[in-house]
Amino acid sequence: MAFLDSEQQALANEIADLATARGETIAVAEATTGGLVSAALLWVAGASRYYAGGGVVYTRNSRIQLAGVPAADYENYRGTTEALIASLAEAMRGRLGATWCIAESGLAGPTGGRSGAPIGRTTIGVAGPVARTQVFETGVEDRGENMALFTTLALRYLRDAITEAPR
C-alpha cells in the first residue's frame, strides 16, 4: 500500500530526476504538511543523492532554532505571510547548504489561526536559483485532505521552479 497518491509519486520522481541530473540538492521546511513533503521526496530510491534534509518547523521557536530564521522576522507575528515563508525557505536552504528549499505553512483546520485566514490556505515558497512564494487556497475544511493537498501543491511548486531555473 502506498502512502502517496499517484500524482505525488510522479512529482517526487520528476523532482528526483531533475535534481539528480543537475547535481542539485533540496532542503525542506514544512509546517502544515507535517513531514509529508519530505516523505514524498524520500520515497524515491536514491534520495540521498538530492535530499539535503529538512524539518517540520511548526512553531515560531522551531523556525528560529532549527531553520535559523532571524527572531526579528517574527516580531509582531500575526500569521504566515509570503515574506515569512521566503525568509524560512532561504534560512533552511542556507542552514543545510542546499541548492533549493521548499517551505510551506498554512491552516489545515479544523480551526483557523490568529491571522483570520481561512482554513485551507497555505503559503508555499521556494528559495534557490528561482525564488518565489505564493498563497494557495483549497476551499477544503478537512485537516487530512488539506495536508495532502498542500503536499501536492508544494511538490508541484518545487518541480516548476526547478524546471524553470537556468541550467
Rounded mean pLDDT is 95
Q: Helix/strand-derived class?
A: alpha/beta
Total helical segments? 5
The CATH homologous superfamily is named CinA-like
Arrangement of strands in the largest sheet: 2-1-3-4-5
Sequence-ordered SSE layout with sheet pairings:
Blueprint: H1 6-22, E1 26-30, H2 36-43, E2 51-56, H3 60-67, H4 82-96, E3 100-107, E4 121-127, E5 132-137, H5 143-164
Parallel strand pairs: 1-2, 1-3
Antiparallel strand pairs: 3-4, 4-5
Helix pairs in contact: 1-2, 1-5
Structure characterization notes:
The chain has five helices and five strands, in the order αβαβααβββα. It is an alpha/beta fold and 167 residues long. It has a single domain (6-164), classed as CinA-like (Maf protein), CATH 3.90.950. It has a five-stranded mixed beta sheet, sandwiched between helices. α1 (6-22) crosses α2 and α1 (6-22) packs parallel to α5 (143-164). The protein starts with 5 loop residues before the first helix and ends with a helix. The mean pLDDT is 95.
